[in-house]
Amino acid sequence: MIEQTTTTPIEAAPVPGGRVELNGQIYWTDAKGALIPAEIVKPTDQLVDEQVRKIMGFAVPLNAQVARFKQHTLNDVADLMAVLAQEYSTKIGGEKGNVTLTSFDGTLQVKVQVQERLTFGPELQAAKALVDEYLTELTEDSGPELRGIVHHAFRTDQSGLVNRAELFRLLRYEIPDERWQSAMRAIKDSIRVDGTKEHVRFYRRADARARWEAVTIDVADA
After folding, report:
1. Coil, helix or strand for 205?
2. What is the DSSP secondary-structure string of 166-204?
3. Residue 66 and residue 70: Cα distance in Å, rounded?
4. Which domain of life is it from (predicted)?
5. Is the overall model pTM greater than 0.85, yes or no?
6. What is each CA distance from 168 to 101, 161, 181, in whole angstroms?
């Protein structure tokens, strides 16, 4: 029997006040860590601060509850898969652990999708050097689109991560130049699987002929 998970009402969690008392005087701590006397903090700043702390008081425990719900769901699905595997003496679900569970009447659905986290090794720098060498021989008129694609593919974001989708896009180009071919092999060799992340998605519909509608848990999409 799969254990049913339950939720409890969200209660506000204590949030640091951002204020200190020194020698009987109340000070507010600003973003630089400086202590500002309470009487010179603008009322509007005080109001914003109050509301942010009030909202965060509910957001923090809600985040923890969603995390617990996700883990309970994954555990329930894993238990069910184990029971089914024992019953039928075979592995249930996709090759990477993906599985879709649908209610008997076809109106409710739970999907567990396992996504690999990819990183890129030092071979990527060799690939960029080879691509740059190839591009230097192209005229401005002969490869402007390709130059733009390469620029976006190897450009890193604020976290130092390359654009994975644009990088994989380069692999689709059939360019016979030996340096390009070597660069594409280097890109493929640079790919590392740095663990996996499990996503749980929920769907419902009025009847078995209706379209599925997502039941979102993401606050941004609620």
Report:
1. coil
2. HHHHHTT-----HHHHHHHHHHHHHEEEEEEEEEEEEEE
3. 6
4. Bacteria
5. no
6. 32, 14, 14
Structure tokens at 50: 């109050």
Instruction: Report the run of H or E that residue 149 belongs to, with start and end.
Output: helix 144-154
Q: How many CB atoms lie within 10 A of CB 138?
A: 13
Q: Which long-range contacts (CB under 8 A, 24 or more apart) does 41-47 make?
A: none
Q: How far is CA 147 from the centre of its chain?
A: 29
- The answer to whether residues 87 and 41 touch, using CB atoms and an 8 Å cutoff, is no
Neighbours of 221 (CB within 10 A): 7
Q: Across the chain, which distance is largest between two alpha carbons, in Å?
A: 77
Structure tokens at 187: 């890109």
77: tokens are 């699905």
| Number of alpha carbons in the 13 Å side-chain half-sphere of residue 122 | 0
Q: The dihedral of CA 155, 158, 160, 166: what is its sign?
A: negative
Instruction: Provide the residue-wise pLDDT of the chain in tens; the chain has 222 residues.
Output: 445 555 566 777 788 888 999 999 999 999 999 999 999 999 999 999 999 999 999 999 998 899 899 999 999 998 888 888 887 766 666 556 789 999 999 999 999 988 878 888 889 899 989 988 888 877 555 566 777 878 878 877 655 677 788 888 888 888 888 999 999 999 999 988 888 888 899 999 999 899 999 998 876 665
